[in-house]
Amino acid sequence: MISKKLYALQVKIGTDFELNLKKVLTLLEQCQEDSIICTPEVVFSGFAYQRMEEAAEFAKLATQALLEASKHHTLITTMIEKNHQHFFNNLKVFHKGELIHKQSKHKLFTLGDEQLHFQAGLEDEIVPFYVDSLKCAALNCFELRFIDLWKRVQGADIIFIPAQWGKQRKDQFETLCKALAIANQSFVVASDGANETMARGSAVITPYGIVYKNDKKEIISAQVDLHETSKMRKYIQTGIPINL
User: What is the full DSSP assignment across 30-59?
Assistant: First the structure.
């Protein structure tokens, strides 16, 4: 059995970037060592459209803090960054004190005017990455709705979904996350914001479709047997490769 503690953070995001970072670092200290933790989307700044330059500069400080904080954890998060005069919503994976993966949000949420403020990333950036021997992948919020992107993460043992998903579409968020876990026979760790307009619904979901969630908590966790992915893929064969 490969046992791993998985966490989804569910926090309110304020206008003070430093307080946001301090909050996340405090929650990380409460998580078990050698665990994997997913935060909400743009958790350090929110969609600070009137402060994009400031948010991008703060991302540099946040990155340095997370490199240190990830020496005993693995962390999946997103932040606003600038490259060649364009702003990107970058999903980043920190592991053992290093940045091991980065992908820019490819599908921008037009209802939230993301396309007016961000440059879309390349679809080719959405690829699996490895946390030690674990094959992982991630989709950034709105990307969860696109079946062609599901194919890009197919075969991962754990799929992470950092999000800022509106409460009007709460059922859709929870349904899509559970469907992704069942269809891909994988674990899904979904982390949504906890502000008043957000759906919450953060969860750890098993390949069997069992959901661990609590809309009232800031930390949702589950100790899981990662061999559940290979068991599902062996006995209910849908062509998804067995990794473990």
Answer: TSPTT-EEE--TTTTT-S-GGGHHHHHHHH
The residues, any chain, with a CB within 8 Å of residue 129's CB and separated by 6 or more, are 93, 100, 101, 136, 137
Domain total of the chain:
1
Q: What is the pLDDT of residues 40-93, one digit of tens each?
A: 999 999 999 999 999 999 999 999 999 999 999 999 999 999 999 999 999 999
| 17-29 and 52-69 helices, crossing angle to 10° | 20
| Residue 240 maps to a domain | no
In a domain, 242, yes or no: no
Instruction: Encode burial over 65-98: b for 16+ CB neighbours within 10 A, e otherwise.
Output: bbeebbeebbbbbbbbbbeeeebbbbbbbbbeee
Q: Are the C-beta atoms of residues 199 and 165 closer than 8 Å to each other?
A: yes
How many Cα neighbours within 13 Å face the side chain of 21? 18
pLDDT digits (tens, 9 = 90+) for 112-122: 999 999 999 99
Asked if the structure places residue 243 within a domain, the reply is: no
- pTM more than 0.90: yes
Residue 22 in 3-state DSSP? helix
**66: domain CATH number?**
3.60.110.10
